[in-house]
Amino acid sequence: MAYSISDFVDLLRRTTDDQGWLQPILDDPDSLAALYMVLAAFVREAQAIDRLAANMRPSTASGGGVGTASLTLTRQASGTSGTITAGYPFLDLRGVKVVSQAAVNVSATALTVVVPVQTLRQTEAVNTETDPGFRIDPAASTIMDSTASTILIAPVGTIGLVSTSFSTVASSTPIVEASADWLAEHGAERGVRRQPNESTGDYRLRVLNIPDAVSPIAIADGVIATCMRTASLPIPIIQEPFDDLATQSMKDEHGLSTFKPLYSDGNTAPESPAHSEFYEDYQREMVSLREARAYFRVMIPQPLNSSDGAAFVPGPPAVATTPPADVMSALMSVWDEANRKRAGGVQFDVFVSEPAAQVGVGSTAVNADTVVFTLTPIVGRAWYLRGAHVGHDSSPSGFALTTAMTHRVTFTFTDATTFTTPASGQMDEERLDPYKTAMSGFPYNKRINKIEGKLKGDGTHAINMVGTFYVTEVVDP
């Protein structure tokens, strides 16, 4: 509750000899003024204590904010125009640094201009009653006028200042509204950190609710919410290497899914206890089935979008594909959220989507390179190649293959160039890796709009070709 002076007077009446001591003070104007001055100090202190006590509860804790003020700049003569950019720095006599909140246009006839500013840090309201006394930050850059011939604004002492330049802050309003981020302090104490671009309201709800920090739903909801707060990442899918038989509609609602691990004997049934090992990703990293039961992965679809509007498509470790800073920051936020909510001993990976498999099948007997299958992305899309397996064999007649019977693959790129693999007489499945010397010269960073499988027979017997191409699909600009 908020205490007033009358509350303290009532307290004195209850705890002292009000008629012998208090009432004479109240009856004398000078004594009453002195008493009220003392009680006013107690009132302010009591109100401050109430606010601090209330702020120790997340439901009433402030989200924090920077201080704001207005600066009036002057110049000796008019005649030049231009724009004072957002973020232009000013400094007050106490060392408080503020920057302009938005770009301010200056007309050629103006002798003064008002610049709204905000403090760089919160809780910068050192004194809101006296004029803080600002100047242009000595480290500030020089801004030229619209003709780029005369200085529009610069710190005092800059060479080239003229009478039409702004270099003096004539007056300023006190800094107001600055406040500490008590809500973030409560969140830090509970291990719930504010995510990038998260509103105070959304953050308060997370701090108020003790998080479900173990279940797959808690992990999925937290990771999805993190991705939704950034423009860099699409909505992810959280995958487990087994099917827990939960209702599919509930899984879909929370972005939960299952991936089929590749067992060392080729079986892909994770529920079978006879298979004790599996490959948890297509890089062929092997872990035990027991470890797999305490594992999940966060799959983020490609492409990722950088703040400059460009799509980022990562390659394997052998290729230098460092993400832009904002994309990396977003990925680290996802990792942090999953790591915070996982149970002890549970392992996980955050990765950008696994390549999709495109399969081509065909046959021919012609004794010349013949296209037996063609694969193309849908209209408006293109592919990046991540790897492939290609091979050929005899038809059911069972005749003996010869080394003269060969296969090859031609890739056509969006810039109309092509790449064709060497003719291969290998009859077993052959792995094509665009990042290895087996496909030396393959332009891995080019987008593909057509893949053609080619066979050469002996002119008599039909042979079959199959190719599986692992591709990442992107929007073709």
Summarize the structure.
With 477 residues, the protein is α+β, with helices and mostly antiparallel strands.
Keywords:
477 residues; alpha+beta; elongated
Number of helices: 9
Number of domains: 5
Please identify the structural class as seen in this structure.
alpha+beta
Strand order of the largest sheet: 7-3-4-6-1-10
Number of strands: 27
Q: Helical percent range?
A: 10-25%
SSE topology sketch:
Layout: H1 5-15, H2 18-27, H3 29-55, E1 66-74, E2 82-84, E3 89-92, E4 97-100, E5 104-106, E6 112-122, E7 134-136, E8 143-144, E9 151-153, E10 168-172, H4 182-189, H5 200-208, H6 216-228, E11 237-240, H7 248-253, E12 256-258, E13 262-263, E14 277-279, E15 286-288, H8 289-292, E16 295-300, E17 304-305, E18 311-312, H9 325-341, E19 347-352, E20 356-364, E21 370-375, E22 381-394, E23 406-413, E24 418-420, E25 430-432, E26 448-456, E27 463-475
Parallel strand pairs: 11-12, 16-19
Antiparallel strand pairs: 1-6, 1-10, 2-5, 3-4, 3-7, 4-6, 8-9, 11-16, 13-14, 14-15, 17-18, 20-27, 21-26, 22-25, 22-27, 23-24, 23-26
